[in-house]
Amino acid sequence: MKSMIRKMIRLVSGAIPEGLALLFVRVALAGIFWRSARTKVEDGSWLQMSDTTVLLFREEYGMPFPEITGLLATYAEHFLPILVVLGLFTRIGAAGLLVMTLVIQFFVYPEAWWQVHILWVALAGILIARGGGLFSLDRLTGHKFG
Prior knowledge:
Structural class: mainly alpha
């Protein structure tokens, strides 16, 4: 019985299952921020920040210099998820998304820790600790920081 359990554990803890799990983690985390990024730009454009974004950063989020912070958030929410999905510089991309999550948690929506942000932190933490996994460009190219 113990040998059968050990075989099952080896089967599910190998490089391929871990690589698939990390791929799903990368897509899940990146998807959250990508969808948010797309709400910050004008319809039909890639990076043309909308007037509504500036208004949100000024009025609802209370961020200083809303034109600059809105633009930085918009660019980061586009660029970092692309890195994470591709698995290119995965740890760096995940760390950037972790920092964004913590800024949102502490300065924008402090009441959302248990509902949402703890999951984002967990996803980013897994990628920072484990990297992009078997199915990533980091693995393919041998990046040390992946």
